[in-house]
């Protein structure tokens, strides 16, 4: 019975080797002292190194006190290590199947810029030690440096995604964003109003000269001349029809 149980544990912890963007990783799962499923993950130099890492991690976990050592190991993981893994897996160019995007981003330039700033501030910190108040301090610092609320929100949204990634990967059980008042407030962003140039108006109206769209052209002209929102325009159209047929 015991031999069977031991064999079952060994099979459960064989782990596996994954390749992402030409980089090799070894992943082995385990159950921590709180009954939560967690995971050890290591970067490998090549296939041979990956196979050896796989054996070493399984051996570590199957040895007496292996889970406790794994927990201590996870506590040492820095924000930089998690963020770099997030970048390798998530901040990649968009991947399409047909006309549907199945992975990646249409533009990675801005997120990578945000990530660079986050790494400068949180990089050396242990991922499990970063608190809600520390994130709030960072938010206030960015705003005091002259950053707009909208831009600060974009950075914080990326930071939240990294913590959610860390949670899914088993490095943390709760994100700092879950431990206090909301840190991202879209309602506080300054709304931007911009008037179309003459050339932009001409191009827009030309687009609505197509036979399939020409019936919408009067609404577009009314919107340009009045500045009304879509709901206001449609309301006016509905009222006009009512009086026309009354």
Structural commentary:
With 246 residues, the chain is mainly α. It folds into three domains: 10-75, no CATH class; 79-188, Tyrosine recombinase, N-terminal domain (DNA polymerase, domain 1); 198-245, no CATH class. It is 54% helix and 12% strand. It contains ten helices and five strands. It has helices at 2-12, 47-62, 66-75, 79-90, 109-122, 132-144, 149-168, 198-207, 217-226, 230-245; strands at residues 16-20, 23-31, 37-44, 95-97, 100-103. The strands form two sheets. Strands 1-2-3 form a three-stranded antiparallel sheet. A two-stranded antiparallel ribbon has the order 4-5. A hairpin with a 2-residue loop joins strand 1 and strand 2 (23-31). Helix 5 (109-122) packs across helix 7. The longest helix is centred in the middle third of the chain and has 20 residues, at 149-168. The termini are far apart.
Concise structural overview:
With 246 residues, the chain is mostly helical. The protein is built from 10 helices and 5 strands; from the N terminus they run αβββαααββαααααα.
Rounded average pLDDT: 78
Q: H/E element string?
A: HEEEHHHEEHHHHHH
Structural class: mainly alpha
What is the percentage of strand-forming residues?
5-15%
Question: What share of the residues lie within helices?
Answer: 40-55%
Contiguous low-pLDDT stretches (5 residues minimum) are 1-11, 237-246
């Amino acid at each position: 019975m015991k031999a069977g149980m031991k064999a079952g544990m060994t099979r459960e912890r064989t782990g596996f080797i994954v390749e992402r963007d030409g980089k090799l990783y070894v992943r082995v799962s385990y159950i921590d002292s709180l009954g939560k499923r967690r995971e050890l993950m290591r970067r490998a130099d090549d296939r041979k190194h990956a196979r050896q890492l796989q054996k070493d991690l399984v051996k570590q976990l199957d040895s007496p006190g292996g889970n406790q050592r794994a927990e201590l190991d996870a506590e040492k993981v820095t924000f930089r290590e998690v963020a770099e893994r997030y970048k390798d897996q998530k901040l990649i160019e968009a991947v399409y199947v047909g006309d549907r995007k199945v992975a990646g981003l249409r533009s990675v330039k801005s997120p990578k810029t945000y990530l660079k700033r986050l790494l400068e501030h949180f990089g050396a910190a242990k991922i499990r030690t970063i608190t809600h108040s520390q994130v709030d301090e960072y938010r206030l610092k960015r705003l005091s440096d002259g950053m707009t609320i909208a831009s600060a929100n974009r950075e914080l949204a990326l930071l939240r995604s990294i913590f959610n990634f860390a949670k899914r990967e088993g490095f943390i059980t709760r994100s700092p964003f879950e431990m206090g008042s909301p840190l991202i407030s879209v309602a506080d962003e300054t709304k931007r109003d911009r008037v179309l140039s003459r050339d932009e108006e001409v191009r827009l109206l030309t687009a609505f000269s197509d036979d399939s769209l020409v019936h919408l052209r009067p609404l577009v002209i009314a919107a340009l001349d009045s500045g009304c929102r879509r709901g206001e325009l449609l309301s006016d159209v509905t009222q006009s029809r009512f009086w026309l047929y009354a």
